[in-house]
Amino acid sequence: xxxxxxxxxxxxxxxxxxxxxxxxxxxxxxxxxxxxxxxxxxxxxxxxxxxxxxxxxxxxxxxxxxxxxxxxxxxxxxxxxxxxxxxxxxxxxxxxxxxxxxxxxxxxxxxxxxxxxxxxxxxxxxxxxxxxxxxxxxxxxxxx
Amino acid sequence: xxxxxxxxxxxxxxxxxxxxxxxxxxxxxxxxxxxxxxxxxxxxxxxxxxxxxxxxxxxxxxxxxxxxxxxxxxxxxxxxxxxxxxxxxxxxxxxxxxxxxxxxxxxxxxxxxxxxxxxxxxxxxxxxxxxxxxxxxxxxxxxx
Lengths: 144, 144
Known about the structure:
The structure is a homodimer.
Chain A: E1 7-12, H1 15-25, E2 32-34, E3 38-44, E4 47-53, H2 54-60, E5 73-78, H3 82-94, E6 100-105, E7 111-116, E8 122-127, H4 131-136
Parallel strand pairs in A: 1-4, 5-8
Antiparallel strand pairs in A: 2-3, 3-4, 6-7, 7-8
């Protein structure tokens, strides 16, 4: 099995709220939009973000964990500069994110903040000038 | 904000068990390996999978949801053929996946199954001959 991710799927409680945030708010185009079922967005060269109704997800994958606390995953979107990070967090707030945490300088040498989508999934917005960050954003500015 | 994912981060309970599965079992090379803290693997042209200790995740992101049931996300790895799907599921079983569900033909026209990693994160292994599947695996075989 080669190390390769093709889709990231998030189960969502209300697909209309999800559409309002990602499509209307952030302005992302969809590859597939089946109301009440699924919304798919291209988020990389060979990568698709699938926002799937909880009912559909549970019917195929199984009962999901419910309760307080965060889902133990994040999705990161890296920017080439620190100013880019701040701009994206502002855009997420304008798009209606229910929670935005402004960026901070991190021990690992970068600068990042977080926003939540309507289901509380956390997106990390990061400027990462290290070697691994360069993989994700080849035009990363070392001076940020 | 352009629609782009740079990193996928999963909080993991035991990073040694995670390494045994992904690195020793599946044979995936690492970009960064800090024992007890984090393991990073390149899983796309500009995409990194980050396996982060729960303690580190919780300190930066917040308390995670615990309890029964599945984390409401999946990561998919698409293959160009149905035989490729079966081969990957067999490889995951050989690598020590705690749970493998053999592939089935799906209503949407594809063929997919699932395996769990040591924390129970579900990977979907799929052959998807539809238009969205073609984005993720350009060499998808329409005859599978």
